[in-house]
Write a structure and sequence with these properties.
- Strand 2 and strand 3 form a beta hairpin.
- The chain has a domain of about 190 residues: tt1808, chain A (Alpha-Beta Complex), CATH 3.90.1570.
- It is an alpha+beta fold and about 280 residues long.
- The strands form 3 sheets. Strands 1-4-5-6-7-8 form a 6-stranded mixed sheet, with helices on both faces.
- The chain is about 40% helix and about 20% strand.
């Protein structure tokens, strides 16, 4: 099994803008984030997933063919934009990302397709909805892959990690494994990566390289280690320069002292010689 970071899509689905949206008639404000009672509990794993996905698939928002978002509005009834759902994290490939964002809503009939991948992070108030109503909605609108991550050891979803593929309009479970390192994994064909549950913390694993994607904690630790090593090396080099300077100064001082001693001795010899000549002249 191999995977690489996807290249730019050869074609981007054309965005079919269908008139203006009367945002004032919506019963929500799409410019305001969708806050949930346990938002702080979900925040860290959500940010971890977003950071890993943004780095891997969107060049941190620079790719025009990949749309990644969190807690924004996905509408699924063209006749009523108040009929909506708010995925924790969702990703769509081969779409016009620059045309989606100004609309403030993800409208599949305008984008050209539903998201390719959706993730929900469990919480006390949303866990039942994630495995029930939201799951049904994602299947109905044709989301090819749906994942659930539980940051509370399975207390919210009934399982720590779950992935499902849409087959014939019905979600079928994706097999999970814990071998060989004991971390729970499930392979996502859409991402070409394995989602991992590591003691209530999310990770992504690349089967092509047999390695985990670097997260911000590891990146920070690596940079701190590099900085510490740099500072230690700089301190050693500074100490060596100071030692060399001190040795050079000591050598220069010795040479100067020796030169002064020689000059003093030579002056004394000249003085004695002059004295001797005067005495000889006086005889």
């Amino acid at each position: 099994m191999t995977t690489t970071v996807p290249a730019l899509a050869p074609t981007i689905l054309p965005y079919h803008r269908q008139g203006e949206i009367d945002y004032a008639r919506l019963d929500y404000n799409p410019d305001e984030p969708v806050l949930k009672p346990e938002a702080m509990e979900q925040e860290q794993p959500m940010q971890e997933f977003l950071g890993l996905l943004a780095s891997r698939f969107t060049d941190f928002g620079q790719r025009p063919d990949t749309f990644l978002s969190s807690n924004t509005i996905l509408c699924y009834d063209p006749d009523d934009l108040n009929v909506r759902v708010s995925p924790d994290v969702y990703l769509a490939f081969g779409v016009d990302a620059q045309a989606i964002r100004p609309r403030k809503l993800y409208l599949p009939w305008e984008v050209g397709k539903p998201p390719d991948w959706v993730l929900e992070i469990g919480s006390a108030s949303t866990g039942r909805e994630d495995v029930g109503r939201k799951r049904d909605i994602y299947a109905r609108i044709g989301v090819p892959e749906y994942w659930r991550f539980d940051p509370k050891d399975g207390a919210y979803h009934g399982e720590q990690l779950a992935g499902e593929r849409l087959v014939g309009g019905v979600y079928r479970p994706i097999a999970l494994t814990t071998a060989p390192d004991g971390i729970l994994k499930g392979y996502s064909p859409v991402l070409g990566l394995s989602l991992c549950w590591d003691n209530n913390w999310p990770r992504l694993y690349d089967p092509a390289t047999n390695s985990y994607l670097t997260n911000w904690r590891q990146e920070r630790a690596a940079r701190q280690a590099e900085r510490a090593a740099y500072e230690a090396q700089a301190a050693v080099e500074q100490a060596e320069r100071l030692a060399e300077r001190a040795a050079r100064q000591a050598a220069e001082n010795r040479a100067a002292s020796e030169q002064a001693a020689r000059e003093s001795a030579e002056a004394r010899i000249r003085q004695l010689e002059a004295e001797l000549r005067r005495r000889q002249a006086d005889r």
